[in-house]
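Quick entry, no commentary yet.
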Amino acid sequence: MQYRKGQIVGYVEASDRLAVPAVPDSWHVLQVMPGRDAKVIKAFAERCISGWSPIVVHFVQRGNGQQARRPHLGRRIEKAFLPGLIFLPDFELGWLGEIRSIPDVDNLLNFGELRSWLNATEMQLLRDIVKIENLLPSRRRWALAQLFLKYGFISVAQAEDETKLRVGRQIRVADGVFSGLRGLIERIDSNGRLSAYVGDGKHGVKVSGLTEAQIELID
């Protein structure tokens, strides 16, 4: 018998594990050995098990290990945001026995007789927080204010104040030769560029021409 490409020759029933809802109703917290999160997630992938380990990415200078001013100037470091915790969708609970047989996996996180879990809204909040952690430092303040506003933690006026540049506001320089130093905004020109007094507590210097992307609000 001859076959041709694209010809249907039969059907194979899919495993029950593939017949899962697109979005779980809840997520349960699985304890694993801290530092082995990535290894466990890899084992999950090999067994077609769904799970999420939040990851934050940093770029550090190769010489001293301090945070790099720009991603291309440093070495990429990936770390678990919550070491030792992996989030398991509710539809995988039926396979908990197999999951616990994986090396470095402990059990679901419990508090007495209460089992920890997150609903869809709480899980989305966590994803948003992890996303902000992966932003450049100069952009995190604005993103956090928007997050607080989105979930109703603060009012619109408070959100605007969190991100407003004004004379007298304290900043931290996030880019350039003065990166990491604190300063005080002294002037804002019509183009939005800043002049700030930047120092280390003992000595200081006036820096002009800073952009919003180069600074981080800290008060």
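second:
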Amino acid sequence: MEDRGITLARAWEAHGDRSGARQSAGVRSRVMLPPEPGPEGSEPGRAPVRRARTVGRRGRPLSLVVAILLFAAFWICSVGTAMWGLAHDRKGGHGGDVAYIVFWTLVFALMVWRLWRGGRVAIAFMSRVGTLIGGLCVVATVAFAVLFATDPPGGSALDFVPYLLPTPVAGVALLTAGLLLRRREVSRWSGF
């Protein structure tokens, strides 16, 4: 009984220590958790654990950073295309449309900020949205390719091909970003 009290006392002392003694006592955070297995697979019968690549001071997973960059590139291209269309529309009077674009850009910026900070709900939502919209873009591209293939010679369908070329690129980017957010290291980093 006395043995256990000494062990708990040592673990409690190491609990507040941020040095290497903390890891040796088996404490990883404010909550006393068992230590993670080392990268060499030091425990008998266990496979080696591969560490995820991290970026920055907080150790964000590389897959999270790449997903955020893909989402941001998609949004910038989408907003640029929308603004280009508004600037070249001859009807004019698009103040409300610009307000919609600004509003949704602010919403998107908030979601990306929450992704960057590790928000669980933002990660789950953006992974679902990216996978869904990316998949729909890829399926729509395949559907339009079938329609273009069945168009009679001399038809007008081929005139629309340059306008649809960004769709598969956007679809693959969103699908990739959504799948990257579902990786194990992202969920482990965000606390899932």
